[in-house]
Amino acid sequence: MNLSTLPALTVLSDNVTIVEIDQVKVVRVIHDKASAAIALHGGHVISYQPKGQTDLIWMSEQTIFDGKAALRGGIPVCWPWFGRIAAPAHGFARNSEWTLVEHRENDNGVIVELGLKPSEATLAIWPYQFDARLLIEIGDELTVTLNVTNTDENAWTFSGALHTYLTVGDIEQVKTTGMGAEYIDSLKGGEICQGGDVLQLTDTIDRVYTQPEAQIVVEDPALSRSIVVENQGHNSAVLWNPWAEGAQGMADMQDDGYKTFLCVESTLHAHSIEAGKLLQPNQTHQLISTISVK
């Protein structure tokens, strides 16, 4: 998808415009350091392309931009829970309409801030007051920060993830390091397993790595680069790829889509909502993922 050719609905600055893909409004950033795009539906980063690079963020060619369905690819914001521990799966943030709070820019890049507050729809799903902010810093690297504050009178628990789909040239050539040895294997009913230092895929994967290092490196020979993912505020890193059978079972992913991405997620994992992180009134938690290329 060539976002640069879309006509601007609104020009906010020299670097920032609002465009539309089908029914979804998108904040488009074009800067000397990098270009990027963030859908207001879901607060969803759908592109980040440092100058001279192939886009680091993968989007399905069959993504549905109807303003209702969660977008397939990009960086879905899974909150106030991650996984299928409640309905809807991965929480309501990725299906909600976020608001553009502010944008600012300088020679080093652009910062876009989005906000999400309770509505009748969110309160019907999860009966708590909150203030969620998404800070997207676009420059030589991409930093996405999910900032959640408890504005309720009562404490609440939550989990979540920045569910990043990284573009790779050929998934079978990719070697990943830094995820740590221990993982919970979702394909084996949550069995705790031990893995090696280097991960090279030959089949589907859905793992919660419980002791990731500060940096996870995705070495991608086909595109002659490595992508570095540095997470903060997390307790685990999820790695996922559906492989051929999984891709064929998704209406919003092309059958061979699995060949060109790997999900490496900054995750606050919990096996139930009650087991999630406790946030007292007026407390804030940040979940951060920084993505760069070398």
From TrEMBL:
Enzyme active site: H163, E265
UniProt-listed GO biological process terms: carbohydrate metabolic process
Catalytic class of the enzyme: isomerase
Catalyzed reactions per annotation: alpha-D-glucose 6-phosphate = beta-D-glucose 6-phosphate
SUPFAM superfamilies, A to Z: Galactose mutarotase-like
Pfam families listed in its UniProt record: Aldose_epim
EC numbers, comma separated: 5.1.3.15
GO molecular function term, any single one: glucose-6-phosphate 1-epimerase activity
Family the UniProt entry places it in: Belongs to the glucose-6-phosphate 1-epimerase family.
Name the UniProt record assigns to this protein: Putative glucose-6-phosphate 1-epimerase
Species, as recorded: Vibrio galatheae
Lineage: Bacteria, Pseudomonadati, Pseudomonadota, Gammaproteobacteria, Vibrionales
